[in-house]
Amino acid sequence: MELVVFDLDGTLLNRRSAISDYTSETLKLLTERDIAYTVATGRTLHGARAILDGHRFRLPQAYKNGVMIWHPKTGHFSSSATLTRGELENLVSACFEQGVTPFVFTLNEHDESVVYHPPLLTDVERELIFSIGIAEPGNVRALDELSSDATITHVNSIGDGKAIEAVLRSVDDEPHLVAYSGTALEGEQWRWLDVHHSDASKGGAIHAMKRMLGLERVICFGDSDNDLSMFEAADEGYAPENANDNIKSAATAIIGHHDEEGIARFLRERFALEAR
Predict the structure, then answer these.
(1) Pairing with 75, which of 127, 164, 260, 276 sits 20 to 30 Å away (CA)?
(2) What pTM was computed for the model?
C-alpha cells in the first residue's frame, strides 16, 4: 500500500491558493480506489483547514513543516522534536532586539496548540499576522504566562526583511534549530520567519505517518526547499514545473505546473483514474 503526500502552496493548490474542481474530483477518485493521501505543509492547521474541508483529508496531517502532526480522528496534535527553554530564550531575545514579535507555539497537556506572544508592535504587523493565520483563535495567551516547562514546538515572526534576516543569523548559532523565511506580502518588504528543532521536518513526519498507517511506500509532491527532507524520505518525489531548482534536482521526475493541475493530471495517469 502507498501513501500519497502533498505539499499545498505551489503544489496541490493553484495560484488562488485553492483546490480546483478538477483536483477535487481527482481526490475523490483516489478515495474511491482506497489510495491513501494526506498533506505535509508549512501552513498551520488554522491556515489550511478551510482549504482542505470537504476534500476527504481524513488521515494524520503534517503542519509547520513537520513540526506538528494533526490527528483528525482524535482532534489532537503530536510532536516529537521540541525547543529547549534556553533555545527559546535566545530566539525571543533576538526577536526583541530586532523589533519583531515572536509567536511561541506550544502543546498543552491535552495536546492542543496554544500560542503565546507579547503585545503586537504595529498595525501592519497585526494585519499581516491575522491575514495568514499565525494566531490561531481560541488558544492565544500573553507571553509572560508561558510556563517554564512548556512543550515548545516552534516560533513564528513577521517583520521587516532586514530585521528577519538578523534573527536568521542568530539562529545559525543554535546547533539544534533550523529556520525558514519567505515573503509575507508580494511587493512589500515584510517577511515571515519559522523556527523549529532541526529534527522536526516533513521527512520525519512522513516516516511517522508511514508507521502509524502501516503503509509500505510513499509518493510525494513538493516545490520548495522545505520539501527536500520529504523527497529524501519518500520512495518517489515529483516536482511541478514551477518548483525551484533544488527540488527539481532531487525529484524522480518533473511534472505539470501547479496552476495547470499538474499533480492531479499525473495522479490520474499514474493510477489509471477515470471519472464515472
Answers:
(1) 127
(2) 0.76
